[in-house]
Amino acid sequence: MSPISTSSTQTLLTQTVIAEGLRQADFAAAKAFGATVIEEGLDGKVLLRVESVEQVFSLVELLTKREIGSATPNFVRRISPINKSAPTRAWSHNKIGVAAAWAITRGSADVRVAVLDEGVDTAHPSLKAAVVAERDFIGSNGNSATPAGNDAHGTACAGIVLSRDDTYPGIAPNCSLIAARIAMDDGSGNWIFDDFATADAIDWCWRQGAAVLSNSWGGGAPSDAISRAFARARTQGRDGLGAVVAIAAGNFQNPIDFPGNLPGYVTVGASNPDDKRKTRTSSDGENWWGSSYGATMQLLAPGVFIWTTDISGPAGYDPGDFTKTFNGTSSATPAVAGAAALMISANPALSASSIRNLLGTTAKKIQGQTTWTPELGWGRLDVGRAVAAAKVAGEPQAVKPAGKKAKKQAKKAKKKAKKAAKKK
User: Fold this and answer.
1) pLDDT, tens digit (0-9, with 9 covering 90-100), for 79-113
2) pTM beyond 0.70, yes or no
C-alpha cells in the first residue's frame, strides 16, 4: 500500500479499483489488461484487482476512456480519533430544545436511521429494541454490526439518536436503527476504512429504507465511489424523497475534508455549552481539537461532554453501559441525524432538501452572528423549532382577512367593472 497523508488521515492506495456501470466489453477490456473481479457490490459496483499499485491509475484511465459509470482507486483510510471529554453534567438536550420537539413527536418506528461507523452494540439494553437491520462490511461478522474490543464510537453515535434509556435518552428514541459496520481498530488506536466497503454500506443502508444516514467519519482523498453512493441515497432514498445525509465536519480546526466537503448534504460542526463554536481555545477547555470549517458547513450541534450509550459491560469508553465523555463533530452529527428523524416523523412527505433547508432556517444564531458563515453555518441546531417547522411545512397558509384599505380597493374595482359592463 502507498500512503498519502492529509492532516489526521492516511489514505493508502491498494492494488484495487472500484468500477461502476461496466458492460461486457468493458469487463473483457479489464481482463485483457490483467485485472480480475474480486467482489461485486450493489448498484453495479465491482472491485477489480491488478498485479501492482503502479497499474491502478492505468486501469482507471483505461476504463474512464471507455465512458463507464465510474472508475476510481480503492483507498484504505487510516483515521486518528480525538481524545474523549471529561465527565460533567448533561446539557445538550436542554440547549437544543429536545423537550419542545418531544411535545410534537418522539419519533416513529417507520423512520429508520442508519449509523455507519465502527460497529454498534446492537445487543445494548437501550438500543436492542430499535434495531431493524445490521451488517458488517469491513470484517467477517456477516449480518451483525457488533464492534470489536473497545470500538465504542458507533455505539455512542447510535445512542445520541436512538437510546431508550431515561437517563441517557436519544433525541429520536422511538425511531428505528440500521447499523452498518464500516470501520475497525487497526490495533494502534486508529480506524481503518475501505472505500469499496463504505460505498456499498451507503447503498445498502438507503436500500434498507434508511430515512437518515449518520456519518461521523471522514478525511483523506475524495472517492468517486463514495460520492456516487451518497448521491443515490440523497436522490433515490425514501422512494425518491431522498434520505437525509448528515456528515461530520471534522475535528482539526482546518478546512472541511472529504466527504464533509461535498455540497448539498448536511455537514455538521460542533458547539459547546456556552453556545459558541468549539475551537481549541473555546471555554470548554478541550484544547486538543476544534471544529473544522468551510463552504459546505450547514449548522453546529453539541460536541463536548455528551452523555450516551457505551458498549455494555467493561469494554468501550467507560465501565458500564453508558458514557458521559463522548465528543467531537462525531457527537454533533448524530444529534442532527436525530433531529432529522423527528422532522420526518412529524411530516413524512418532506424531501431531503426541504429538511436540510429547515435545519438551517430554524437554527439559532450564535452570539454576534447575522447570516451564514463558513465557521458557524446557519447557527446551532434547535430541534424544537426544526420539528415544529417541519410539521407545518407544505400546509396551505391561512389567508388573513382583508383590512379596511383592501376592502375599499376591492369595492372600487367592483364599481369600475360594472361601469365597463354597462358601456358594452
Assistant:
1) 999 999 999 999 999 999 999 999 999 999 999 99
2) yes
Q: Show the domain range for 37.
A: 2-79
Find the catalytic residue in 126, 214, 291, 330. 330
In a domain, 411, yes or no: no
Res 9: pLDDT: 83
Q: Is 124 a catalytic residue?
A: no
Q: Based on the domain organization, do 326 and 233 belong to the same domain?
A: yes
Contact by Cβ (8 Å): 345, 175: yes
Asked if the structure places residue 404 within a domain, the reply is no
Question: Same structural domain for residues 158 and 25?
Answer: no
Does residue 93 carry a catalytic annotation? no
Half-sphere exposure of 251 (CA within 13 A, CB side): 24
Q: Region of 55 please: left (phi>0), alpha (psi -120 to 50) or beta.
A: alpha
Amino acid 1: pLDDT? 43
pLDDT > 90? residue 395 = no
For the chain, the first-to-last Cα distance in angstroms comes to: 88
102 and 27 in one domain?
A: no
| Position 151 in a domain | yes
User: Among 85, 121, 153, 203, which one carries the catalytic annotation?
Assistant: 153
| Known catalytic membership, residue 283 | no
- Hunting for cell 448528515 — which residue is that? 246
Q: What is the CATH number of the domain that holds 367?
A: 3.40.50.200
In a domain, 337, yes or no: yes
Whether 288 contacts 257, CB under 8 Å = no
In angstroms and rounded to an integer, the radius of gyration of the C-alpha atoms of the chain is 24
How would DSSP label each residue in 364-406? BPPTT--S-BTTTBT-B--HHHHHHHHHHTTSPPPPPPP-HHH
Whether residues 336 and 190 fall in one domain: yes
Residues of 48-67 as b/e, b for ≥16 C-beta within 10 angstroms?
Answer: bbbeeeebbeebbebbeebe
The pLDDT tens digits for 177-192 are: 999 999 999 988 899 9
Q: Which of 43, 117, 194, 195 is catalytic?
A: 117
Q: How many CB atoms lie within 10 A of CB 24?
A: 7
Shared domain check, 102 and 32 = no
d(CA 126, CA 321): 9
Domain count within the chain: 2
Mean pLDDT score, 183-211 = 95
Q: How many CB atoms lie within 10 A of CB 103?
A: 12
- Residue at grid coordinates 411530516: 347
Angle at 176 between CA 173 and CA 180, to 5 degrees: 120
The neighbouring-strand residues paired with 114 are 178, 213
